[in-house]
Amino acid sequence: MGDKKSNAKGESPHLIAARIHAILARESDTAIVFRRGPSNKTAILKWDLQTDSFDLGQWFYGSFYPYRCDISPDGRHLVYFAAKYGRGSSMDEYIESRIKAELGEISWFHGGQYYQRMERIVNDSATRRERERQIKTGEYSDCSWTAISRVPYLKAFSLWFNGTGWNGGGLFVGNRKVAINHAPGGSVVKMGGSRFVEVPPPKSCCDWKYKGECPMVYFPRLVRDGWKALPKDVFEKPLDGGMTLKKFFICGSPGEGHGCYWERHVICDDSGQVVVDGADWSWADYDRLRARVVFAANGAIYSLRCKGFLAAPKKLHDFNNMKYERIKAPY
Asked: How far apart are CA 2 and CA 319, in angstroms?
């Protein structure tokens, strides 16, 4: 179910709708759906656009970043960024154990001695050998990572440990080619996997003002997928019949039921007049093959036919009653 939250007056908790984001594959009838709620639980689902059926893959328990994700053109693979903050790096633990071996149990008065030893140990040959050993044996771990998996699962074919909440994620530039959102000069650790060719990220990934944050991946993805970038983080996509779908990307205090980034949408006619107000749409896109706008609102996904927008939206699936469960990937 949605997240329960008491109001400021301490009254009984009420349900907050699940937060929905989706990505339509460019060359297939497949989309990926991210269903979040409560805040640290995200479900990954496969959406068949022909039948409007939704198949649950896996849940993730931790921090998940849909705006830094992408789906391959054929709809078969997912690149994603996720984190379990508070979990230490295996190399941090190794370095800490060596410092303790020299200083004994560490306390505040070790101060300068602690940092002097850390600076030396971090860069010495023994640490380099241990790092190489952990990577080779698959023992290396860190608190955040970018991975490529099979839709709609999370088990990685290729894996890059990131180590912080900055950067991460990526964009498919082909079914087997991917641009990973590394920090400039960053120390990302790749853990094998040869199914995908890594290519440099598009220059557009570095042109936005949000350095290291979600728009570095999300905005280039929108432009690639047919959205036109306008000033003030507004995007528009042409619809049939001279209509336009507009997306307003907002960074700031979101209020209840939103993250730090959120969106609102409108549909305008050829004169710029608003004909459909999607102020409560948390996500929207145009399914051109079926001539319909698809959008998320109040924890559900809907479709809206473009012919005059006279018919009521059709609810395709309500995600609010889903509950976290541990599911093993079938590969």
From this structure: 9
Contacts 24+ apart (CB under 8 A), 97-100: 98/126, 98/127
**Percent of the chain that is helix, strand, coil (3-state, to 5):** 20, 35, 45
From its phi and psi, is residue 276 left (phi > 0), alpha (psi between -120 and 50) or beta? beta
How far apart CA 61 and CA 43 sit, in angstroms, is: 9
DSSP 163: -
Written as tens digits, the pLDDT of the chain (331 aa) is 455 543 333 444 447 899 999 999 999 999 999 999 988 999 999 999 999 999 999 999 999 999 999 999 999 999 999 998 877 778 878 888 888 888 887 666 556 777 788 778 877 998 888 888 887 777 888 889 999 999 999 999 999 988 888 889 999 999 999 999 987 655 677 886 668 999 887 776 666 566 788 999 999 999 999 999 999 999 999 999 899 999 999 987 656 666 788 999 999 999 999 999 999 999 999 999 999 999 999 999 999 998 777 789 999 999 999 999 999 999 9
- Cβ neighbors of 129 (< 8 A, separation 6 or more) are none
To the question of pTM greater than 0.90 for the whole model, the response is no
Identify whether the C-beta of residue 257 lies closer than 8 Å to the C-beta of residue 240: no
- Sole residue written with tokens 């800490």: 96
Q: How wide is the angle at C-alpha 69 spanned by C-alphas 67 and 75, nearest 5°?
A: 130
Q: Where are the domains of the chain?
A: 3-88+141-318, 90-137
